[in-house]
């Protein structure tokens, strides 16, 4: 039996426990989940190192999954554009059952291998693309079929699973094993397994974005400024990194289209017409662009 489907005898009388005890058990499970994700850091690091040159060469990030796992993958992916400025056109989110499955279950979708291959191949995966499959059981047909098809196309494949001996981890070039074991509520992988997946994907995508130069001195210097709060945050970052009066900072951000990284270069003396070329020479790294004009 798949470990996440097993019933843990410790929780056999869970339904008659005091609420505080139930919550304590659930909280303990969440702590276990994040510890499991942290223990997987060496595997996640290998995935980041393999993915970085492909994404730097213009490849896409493709998240694939079904049900809870698929939605967790989607959640990680959709945050990359507002947080790190990752181009939305280089992000592909494949969920078994399509858009309808975002808000409700689509019967039989996770078992449809033909749909998985069709969905993936319609995007024309190539050697610079990175395809991430997420499945608690490690055997979800939709996810495994997509990963298998991506590997045939030469894409880098990453598998994230809570079942160490599942098919997904065998198929993926970069397996990430998150052995969270039985859930407090048997089979409910939205709990411990889902938390471990979310943590591991956060670790992977954030480390990848850092490696690609979207973070400088712990700040999201490529974030999208889409509201007043973020405009104030952008101004604070430019002030911290390059200084200047309120008017000077506002002027630099306006000239840079709201981008912190470019505004910092302008504030430190880089001519407006040379900003893009300097960043390109240094692979988008603000640190190197500042150190080696």
Instruction: Give me the secondary-structure category.
Output: alpha/beta
Number of strands: 5
Strand content: 5-15%
Query: What form results from the Cα inertia axes?
Result: globular
> Can you tell me the CATH class of the largest domain?
Alpha Beta
Radius of gyration, in angstroms, nearest whole number:
22 Å
Q: What is the level-2 CATH architecture name of the largest domain?
A: 3-Layer(aba) Sandwich
Helix content: 40-55%
Which sequence of SSEs, written as H and E, runs from N to C? HHEHHEHEHEHEHHHHHH
CATH superfamily of the largest domain: Glucose-6-phosphate isomerase like protein, domain 1
| Average pLDDT score | 95
CATH topology of the largest domain: Rossmann fold
Runs with pLDDT <50, length 5+?
A: none
InterPro entries: Etherase_MurQ, Glucokinase_regulatory_CS, MURQ/GCKR, SIS_dom, SIS_dom_sf
Domain SIS: 51-214
Keywords: Carbohydrate metabolism, Lyase
Protein name: N-acetylmuramic acid 6-phosphate etherase
